[in-house]
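FORM 7B: Structural annotation worksheet

SECTION A. Query
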Amino acid sequence: MQPPAIFLMGPTASGKTYLAVELAQQLNGEIISVDSALVFKGMDIGTAKPTVEERGGIPHHLIDILDPSETFSTGQFRSLALAAMADITGRGKLPILVGGTMLYFNALSKGLAKLPEADPEIRARLDQELADFGKEVLHQRLAMLDPKAAARIHPNDPQRVQRALEVYELSGQALSDFFADTGSTLPYRASKLIVAPSDRAILHIKIAGRFRQMLEQGFLEEVQALYQRGDLDETLPAIRAVGYRQAWAYLQGGMDLPTMTEKAIAATRQLAKRQFTWLRKETDALHFETGDSELLNKVMASISKMI
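SECTION B. Predicted structure
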């Protein structure tokens, strides 16, 4: 029988982090972060990265492993996550994967297709086209060539838009076609749990409150430190992260503080909306309510029947 693992999924600000630590303490587990922003060092406040105290003595993997100047692919995540899972299982503990980057969960569960290698010349030309014409034009081109990929990739994610265009140029195939049948399965028996509020308005209130709390905790000072390094810009995945992208524009003089705050909150709500779209596809997951006073007990009761 395959070894067990827990996938704890949910939209941003739904309470996943605290629940994951409680589960790890109860089940002799270790946590693997499934978050495309928590991998970056020096990005703590704006990513709601759990502090040492909040981690409750539980080892957390795939946090603070990269400098913000670096990139991190879905394939890299899958390789590192599988390695961490094997290590945790090998020590007799339970891997608990928690986060809101649903693309990572999907890649882990279903595998990744073998894509064409990157082409420096095509990359350079697409970079120039991005600078000359803007991200909307590239996204519109992708929508004509690969509607499925365009629907999945947000226009504010030019790196993935460019990669999809590059794949099409190199192969003549849509990126979506490569992922139709990866032929790869997860070598674990994953128990999927989703924690989220049933009322979307409650989540919106939590998102707004959390961002304003981040500002009070020094979020702008955190972004200022990154800005002053001089080697980072808004094209990097780290700086494109929700909240950081808006704060970066504010520091460049592109908007005032109230506008930045509202745009960051709106962008986080949009992120949550996209996460809910992914989560609806997880038809074999168990659902739990954010803020339920009996949340841990209900989750433990369900897990005991699954692992």
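SECTION C. Observations
The chain has a mean pLDDT of 93. Residues 257-279 form the longest helix (23 residues).

SECTION D. Sign-off
Analyst initials: ____
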